[in-house]
TrEMBL record:
One of its GO terms (biological process) is negative regulation of DNA-templated transcription. This is Bacterial regulatory s, gntR family protein. One of its GO terms (molecular function) is DNA-binding transcription factor activity. It comes from the Bacteria. InterPro entries: Bact_HTH_transcr_reg, Chorismate_lyase_/UTRA_dom_sf, Tscrpt_reg_HTH_GntR, UTRA, WH-like_DNA-bd_sf, WH_DNA-bd_sf.
């Protein structure tokens, strides 16, 4: 995409991110004047954004270009990287790597990854993008002694694919905990949303083919852009409850009440 066209697209996406679903951005004439571009160049940019589901057009006297903000579906039945499930839904995936480091593991991380008290972890923080728009903020940690040279690799794509290709490690299963939280000022700035906006926090421990934990991560997904999907199997009321089952935990005053 030519540089001017990409710059125009980014400016429109920024206004979309700052808006509310259903809000009118303006008419073609108004938008062409606002962005200082020709109607033909604007139409090309709008066509791409409409195809991606970020905007929709309404014809008529009260018509114009409106913000759609379609939701990204995040499946709970697969262990796949963000680029894979974005690509399946027709989005162009992107990544901003915010920070990488090797650091001492805290108690929670040591417990999740079954590490010794003096163990070090590789920590990678990234913002994930869908069609140029921030969709999630990731903080992933890995045992440092298992993945020498990891920080020297390209970290913009799927870490699962990278670990499989470079270290022969396959993501066999993951235990995930999902909570509704509110964005801090820093998180809101990184995700282009207002402070205290709704987020979905997914805390995950991923296990390899030998059932050893190798990833402990904390993913924050924008609540206005993300929905969760899961396929549930019926078993009848008389069947015994399996050992591995999904559950919902209701938290109240530090007490968890599980609903199977």
């Amino acid at each position: 995409m030519p540089r001017q066209s990409e710059e125009l697209r980014r400016r429109i996406v920024a206004d979309i991110n700052a808006g509310v679903p259903g809000t009118k951005l303006g008419s073609e004439r108004e938008l062409a004047e606002r962005y200082g571009t020709s109607r033909s160049s604007l139409r090309q940019a709008l066509a791409a954004l409409e195809e991606a589901g970020l905007i929709h057009r309404v014809i008529g006297r009260a018509g114009g270009i409106f913000i759609s903000h379609t939701q990204v579906e995040r499946s709970l039945t697969d262990v796949v990287g963000v680029p894979a499930f974005l690509a399946r839904q027709g989005y162009v995936a992107g990544t901003r790597v915010l920070s990488t480091k090797i650091t001492a593991a805290d108690q929670r991380t040591r417990t999740a990854l079954r590490l010794e008290p003096d163990a070090l972890v590789i920590e990678i923080q990234r913002v994930r993008l869908a069609d140029g728009s921030p969709i999630s903020l990731e903080l992933a940690q890995f045992p440092a002694d298992r993945f020498p040279g990891l920080l020297e690799q390209q970290l913009g794509g799927s870490l699962y694919e990278l670990l499989e290709s470079q270290y022969g490690l396959v993501a066999a299963r993951a235990d995930e905990r999902i909570e509704a939280v509110n964005a801090t000022a820093e998180e809101a700035s990184l995700l282009d949303i207002e402070p205290d906006s709704a987020l979905l926090l997914i805390t995950r421990v991923t296990y390899d083919q030998d059932d050893r934990p190798y990833e402990f991560s904390r993913d924050l997904f924008r609540g206005d852009r993300t929905c969760l999907a899961v396929t549930a199997q019926g078993r009848g009321v008389a069947a015994a409850e399996p050992a591995d089952t999904a559950s919902v935990s209701l938290q109240r005053q530090g007490v968890e009440v599980k609903a199977g």
